[in-house]
Predict the 3D structure of the following.
Amino acid sequence: MNTSTQLARNIVRQLIENGVADVVLSPGSRNAPLSIALFAAEQKGLIKLHVRIDERTGGYFALGIAKASARPVAVVCTSGTAAANYHPAVLEAHHSQVPLLVITADRPERLRQSGANQTTLQAKIFGEATPFALDISDPDYNLVEAFEALLNGPIHLNVQFDEPLLPDDEDDWLRDVTRGDAAKPARPKLRNLMITESRGVVVVGHDRGGLGVKEISDFAKSIDWPLVSEDPLSFPTSVPYASLFLTSLKIRQALKPEVVIVIGRTTLSRSMNALIKSAKREIAIDPRIAMIDINRNADQIFLAIPSVTRNNELDDAWSSLWTSYADETSKLVEVLPDWSEASIARTVARLLPDESTLFVSSSRPIRDLEGFAASRGNVETFANRGLAGIDGNISTALGIASQRSSTFAILGDLSFLHDVTGLIGAGDINLRLIVINNDGGGIFSTLPQHNATGFEKLFGTPHGLDPALIAASMGVPSTTITSIDELQREILEPIIGLSVVAANVPSREENARMLLDLYQGIETI
């Protein structure tokens, strides 16, 4: 057999034996040896092969699969600009430590910088985002070190294929190949946390540092302080509306903690981060501090949930104060306009069926869920909080939905437009995309930029497009809604295949005024 065929089969065999069950492939010529080998593996039932014509969406689709399955996922592309289009998803995977195995096809090394077509220096194209990167030409290369490195986040295999690219034999090379199990990272050594303070709070970032909901809940219960979560849908005992009432300096001073325990990263609310920085002692719990956030500061750092030794007395008045502020804020939230971005977030959070899955895009949607959703459980949530980009959100949601039976996603209109090619090739994936359409970048109307000269052109970026019509033009069932009753029907309707619901909401300026009025009302609590 020719060298390229041998090399491709060797790689595919090792993927299967090391627990890779899903591979996302983008078509090309130079990656033909891998494409043919992967198809043969799928025909044998050894992998599931997903084809995406756009490498950027393919990378994010694989990211979503890896998030939902908790298994390594491979992405495969041809040479040239194809490889570069993976970079956004690789960066997100790096900062979230998601096991993404990036395989880029390349021409032989002798053709680099020679003017050869589709040839660039792509061997280390992702830089520090893939600390482990190989440039492979040996058809018998053993990838044992690669799979060990994959435990810490994305890796890059750049594979040199020489012509001929098509197989010249009919060997049943998969006859003795069996699917293996993916390796699991070793847990850090258990350490103990001594608690002596009476007034503390546990703050959970949306990504939870990759830690499980149950182990965080058990840990918080053992400490018995107020629990605040950027994701109130995962923690039914968390204090709701904290990001809202903490906008008041008066309330932050009343709730100034002696110690705050931060699990994961807190990336959403300035008010929450202001409270954290006001504490006398800050404790951070996040496995990613070991390799990703190596410069993170805290008085104590733990890489895993610690055991707890308490030498303190609980202050019942402290917990009651948090509950009181939440109750008073709830009264203000309940009288917000029925059809608004805040009410949409509140309604979606309340009506999501138990055991359903929700993906939330960055920018305003994830902040609205943090701020306006009442606490509950029995919902699985995902978001791209590694770098919090608005790119690739449709594709990530589709990747997650491919591993679940019924999934919702909430996106802003710019997130939708940014990744609209992700709608191509969705197949039979059950996903309902709810697009909050305020004709532009609504978050900027709530930030200091809102008074900048040239605001609309530079930040508002109105597009005048109809997400429902765009989806329909691509063969995706779609509808437009303009009331909370219509939204309720869409949430309760069974999800069969891919569909888009465009929620046309009041103007960005009106939403910003509503939020400002709410914050002023909180000052009177």
